[in-house]
Amino acid sequence: MTASGFPSESPDGVRLQKVLAAAGVASRRVSEQLIAAGRVRVNGRVVTELGTRIDPTTDLVDVDGVAVQLDESKRYVVLNKPRGVVSSMRDERGRPDLREYAAEWSERLFNVGRLDADTSGLLVLTNDGDLAHVLSHPSFGVTKVYIAKVEGRVTPQTIARLTRGVTLEDGPIAADKARLLSASDAGGGSLVELTLHSGRNRIVRRMMAEVGHPVVELVRRQFGPLHLGSLPVGAVRELTTVERGALLTLARREGDPQQETPRHEADDSSSPDSQETSP
User: Fold this and answer.
1) Tens digit of pLDDT for each residue in 42-94?
2) pLDDT tens string 141-166
């Protein structure tokens, strides 16, 4: 076995079906069937020859359009970040940070983007810098879904206003989607679901304040293809094979200059270092 976890073979590379089997895609026999059926691509080109050899350290493989993780040194972890924890691996002010949640992995992980200390929910930890760039850089427009508990009774008219757009001090902004989940007549506030691709700082809180419904609690439920699901607050887990495939597929598609130019927001330049900031 090589250091990457794949079988050693000749200097010409490793047979593709062995690579797929080692990556957990399918057994070697089923992998051969996938190749013969034209369902496997290497570096964007369909491969049907069973004798094809590849270099798992440099070649990109996908099956049915879904990326296959070949680099076993890369780690992908999802955290349900609690409130009161800052999105930093080492907080200079001594506040609770992310170190304890990454402690069980020997790799040096870092967080992709940030959630402010008062916001809980889905945060990705990884050591894959290329993927982190695509997920966090505003120019790629990766969507995030938030559930906000807000003050007051939100009306359908307010939901429509959020999708039409509001003007903040750093420019106009509109939700990709907005949905009213519940509204109480007894002063219990409302629950609103917002889908955004903006990377501007504290954008959800500022949007809701602008329409007269300040945020009481905020949770990020989805980040790109990843869903928080039933993961308890404060818990971490590695991504499943399916989740890794979806995430890597997104990163490759958005990071490929041959693909359609990603969405840009002129106002995202206001974010520090042009990276995703707190919602």
Assistant:
1) 999 999 999 899 999 899 999 999 999 998 899 999 999 999 999 999 998 99
2) 889 999 999 999 999 999 999 999 99
Q: Check if the beta carbon of residue 89 is closer than 8 Å to that of residue 98.
A: yes
Angle, helices 241-255 vs 129-136, to 10°: value is: 70
Residue 24 amino acid letter: G
The Cα–Cα gap between 104 and 267 comes to 38
User: d(Cα 31, Cα 63) in Å, to the nearest integer?
Assistant: 10
DSSP state letter for 217: E
* C-alpha span between 169 and 157 (Å, rounded): 22
CA distances from 117 to 80, 96, 148, 181, 275 (A): 13, 9, 15, 24, 17
Round to whole Å and give the CA distance between 236 and 239.
10
Query: Which token pair is 14?
Result: 């490793």
Residue with tokens 């002063």: 187
Cα(122)–Cα(234) distance, integer angstroms: 10
Q: Are 98 and 85 in contact (CB under 8 A)?
A: yes
The residues carrying an active-site annotation are 116
Helix (H) or strand (E) holding 262: none
